[in-house]
């Protein structure tokens, strides 16, 4: 019967396995750094694209506010603060100038036609705020932590705007 304790043979086997693992890690270090740098660059591009999409949604909302205000100037006192916040959302979400994936994104055709009735125009704005808020909230899942917090805050603000514009409905 053999001795069940630590033997020289067992110590040498464990030491050899550990040394082989260390050497394998060292030889792969250059490739690992390149892969990590590539992953960081891909993450930066993805974040810039996400920022551009969500910023473009805020710009489209500002465009819609402007169209409603042009058609119904009597709504200025009610809508101007909400429009100004949408501008701030655009600025906060916009990617840094060097990270912008494309020169400019044209806002979607969210502004179809402004209803002649002011209250219908406000309801249309409330719907646009809800859609934009929902899209920004959905983008939280793909965002890095800091951007996710910003998107959640902007989405909550947009939901509040929709509430205010919809008269609590």
Topology, element by element:
Blueprint: H1 8-71, H2 76-93, H3 118-139, H4 145-165
Helix pairs in contact: 1-2, 1-3, 2-4, 3-4
What does this protein look like?
By secondary structure, this protein is mostly helical. The chain has a domain at 49-165: Ferritin, CATH 1.20.1260.10. Helices cover 74% and strands 0% of the residues. The protein is built from four helices and no strands. It has helices at 8-71, 76-93, 118-139, 145-165. Helix 1 (8-71) runs antiparallel to helix 2, helix 2 (76-93) runs antiparallel to helix 4 and helix 3 packs antiparallel against helix 4 (145-165). It is elongated. The N and C termini lie far apart (83 Å). Residues 99-111 have low confidence and may be disordered.
Number of helices: 4
Count of beta strands: 0
The amount of helix comes to: over 70%
Radius of gyration: 27 Å
The general outline is elongated
**CATH fold assignment of one domain:** Ferritin
Mean pLDDT comes to: 81
- Distance separating the two termini: 83 Å
Relevant CATH superfamily of one domain = Ferritin, core subunit, four-helix bundle
Main CATH class of one domain: Mainly Alpha
